[in-house]
Design a protein that fits this description.
This protein is an alpha+beta fold. Helices cover 23% and strands 31% of the residues. It has helices at residues 3-9, 15-23, 84-87, 114-121, 141-149, 186-193, 224-231, and strands at 27-29, 32-33, 47-49, 52-54, 62-67, 95-96, 105-111, 129-136, 151-154, 157-159, 162-169, 172-179, 198-206, 209-210, 219-221.
Length: 232
């Protein structure tokens, strides 16, 4: 098994991230730093990450969290802020799949399955993610068309989304947007470019899974059937 896959199977990170971690001299094989993600780990090898012995995890879990505001989507935070792992307590080493910025609430998945993490994170797999945005006013038809084609959002990047629905009441609209990519703060940058005031943002679906009525700050383990849906 390649060393990057070994780390992923041990729940350290996705295979892609594991490449970076290995090259940062975090991983030892038989007492020596190994910088080669392609190293073939043998059954007799002892692998350590950050000084701790690791091995592939046989039991894999996926947890759904309803992330509240002001919580950071990361494993550790150097500024002492609350992270999602301060909320989710598990005997497994979990990693968030993707990110929600600290002011965005809603559905966040965490797992110790490195292969699933890699699949759901990679842009080429076009995993659908639905967001509920509350805005002042209403998104015009020409803005919706622009968004469908893709609009420039700065830093040499384009934002693109389809509008699933839009309902307007008393000067405010609830817009459901579907994205297949995950640029940093993409929806916020889109709304800024469209001169629309964003009041709140919540992710309500991920890869076909619904957040449903799971309360903020709460989490649950996905069923076997739900995990199979993610693999599809």
């Amino acid at each position: 098994m390649r060393l990057n896959k070994f780390l992923a199977r041990a729940g350290i990170e996705s295979r892609r991230k594991a490449d970076e971690l290995i090259q940062m001299a975090t991983t030892e094989v038989n007492g020596k730093i190994c910088l080669d993600p392609a190293y073939d780990v043998k059954d007799s090898d002892e692998v350590k990450y950050d000084g701790q012995k690791i091995k592939p995890i046989l039991e894999k879990v996926v947890i759904m969290l309803h992330k509240p505001k002001k919580v950071i989507t990361t494993v550790k935070d150097t500024h002492g802020r609350i992270t999602v792992l301060d909320i989710v307590h598990s005997k497994y080493r979990l990693t968030p799949i993707g990110r929600l910025d600290q002011d965005t609430t809603g559905l966040l998945l965490l797992t110790n399955d490195g292969d699933l993490h890699q699949y759901l994170s990679h842009p080429r797999n076009r995993i659908p993610k639905d967001y509920e945005a509350v805005i002042e006013g209403r998104m015009a038809s020409d803005q919706i068309q622009k968004l469908g084609r893709g609009i420039y959002i700065g830093d040499k990047e384009y934002g693109k989304a389809s509008i699933v629905s839009q309902e307007t009441t008393k000067g405010r609209s609830v817009v459901i947007l579907r994205l297949y990519q995950g640029k940093k703060r993409e929806i916020r940058r889109i709304m800024h470019r469209l001169n629309l005031k964003l009041i709140s943002l919540k992710r309500i679906r991920f890869a076909g899974l619904e957040l449903g009525d799971l309360p903020e700050h709460h989490y649950r383990t996905l069923s076997e059937m739900e995990v199979k849906l993610l693999h599809k």
